[in-house]
Amino acid sequence: MEPSVSVGVLWNKRISFILKGGYLYQGQEVPEVNIISYINGKIQWNEKSYSELYFEPTNEDASFIIKDVVIGINFHWERKEDQEFQGVLKLIVENEMITAINIINVEDYLTSVISSEMSATASTELLKAHAVISRSWLLAQIEKNKEIISNNTQYTTFTENDNERIRWYDREDHTNFDVCADDHCQRYQGITRTFSNIEIVRKAIDETRGKVLKSEGKICDARFYKCCGGITEEFESCWEDIKFPYLIKLRDDNKIQEMPDLTKEPEAIKWITSRPSAFCNTHDKEILDQVLNNYDQETTDFYRWQVTYTRNELSELVYKRSGIDFGIIQNLIPIQRGTSGRIVKLKIIGSKKTMIIGKELEIRRTLSTSHLYSSAFIVDKQDDKFILTGAGWGHGVGLCQIGAAVMGEKGYSYNEILLHYYIGATIEKLY
């Protein structure tokens, strides 16, 4: 039986939404245009207070529009837009705000995710591969959350002392719904964007219906990102210290077997300052158009990139982003790198304080007004400047979307694409 998924869409003190095509609350019809507010720990709607609201569609064509949904949270292209969804609209009180949740069947959710994550003009094999990994990731997260709850596990993603701050960001931040709608989980925008060839996306999903990646009897935590930079990263470099046999170091090029040890600084420097062959090393606009939406294409350099800060700019930025007063930044020293050259632990040396930070996303957040493209970078100090030269876009664990797009264009099947990036996994049908 096909499962459903609950998706957190928006958090705000006040939410405006429009119910189209017929919705019921406790069996009663409700008006189309609605505004709700958070007042005294309750949801205020039509001059009454509620702990939660649950609006159920009366037919398959019904939909609802939520105004001013924030997309690209904390990224350089963050913006607001009105978004339209099908399925159930649930509204709850959470963290002194109202949370809007969409409850929808998994396969319908996937249609939106794949359309949101990449263009529907992508090759059929790439779309099929993405359907399988998105389904796998989603169901794996739901199972993981059930395990945490049933085992009454104290789950933490943050440790800090005077000398070290280690933090990672994962979907366990969400406890009242399965996943969020932004890039923190998977980019989900309901039926906001409909493509002229949306049927191609639906066909790819239908042809892989219920199929997931499995390893050691469990659904794979099938991570993905934009560009690995030539070699993939291991799971434990970015999240908790767990080794998954299918999320390990691999060269993103079937013709080259050489695997430099990028955990060693000299090898990482040599790698990052070169442009080795890889599936994802491409400037082919037609291929990039398959994977990158318009706002993603505001980024043109992703395989190798460079960012420059003055000493004062860097010092002010690190203080603002971390809340730690390092004083004037004197040096940035990689302490530990992962298999792709991504920095797992970075020592920040300042005139007032020295501290090690990690993991990769915490480093990226600290050294950028949004996020660095990746933590696979080297540091050059020139006079009063810090020059960061980097590789790749995203965490580098699992499937490289740009690399997979290139593989699809080269004629690889979706099975071959999946088994290239998820080593030793199997593809099985759940429902």
Question: Can you describe this structure?
Answer:
By secondary structure, the protein is α+β, with helices and mostly antiparallel strands. It has 2 domains: 4-201, no CATH class; 224-397, no CATH class. Helix content is 23%, strand content 32%. The chain is built from 9 helices and 26 strands. It has helices at residues 106-117, 124-150, 198-207, 265-272, 285-291, 311-322, 360-366, 401-409, 414-421; strands at 4-12, 14-20, 23-25, 28-29, 33-39, 42-45, 48-50, 52-57, 63-71, 79-86, 88-94, 97-105, 158-160, 164-167, 179-180, 211-215, 218-219, 224-225, 304-310, 329-337, 343-350, 354-358, 377-382, 385-391, 399-400, 426-429. The strands form 6 sheets. The chain has a 7-stranded mixed sheet with strand order 4-3-8-11-12-1-15. Helix 2 (124-150) packs antiparallel against helix 8 (401-409). The model has no long low-confidence stretch (mean pLDDT 91).
Question: Short description, anyone?
Answer:
By secondary structure, the chain is α+β, with helices and mostly antiparallel strands.
Brief descriptors of the model:
6-stranded antiparallel beta sheet; single chain; 2 domains; globular; 7-stranded mixed beta sheet; 431 residues; alpha+beta
As laid out across the biggest beta sheet, the strand order is 4-3-8-11-12-1-15
**Biggest sheet features:** 7 strands, mixed
Average pLDDT number: 91
Beta-strand portion reads 25-35%
Rg of Cα set: 22 Å
Which term fits the overall shape? globular
Question: What's the count of strands?
Answer: 26
**Structural class by sheet pairing and helices:** alpha+beta
Number of domains: 2
What is the helix content?
10-25%
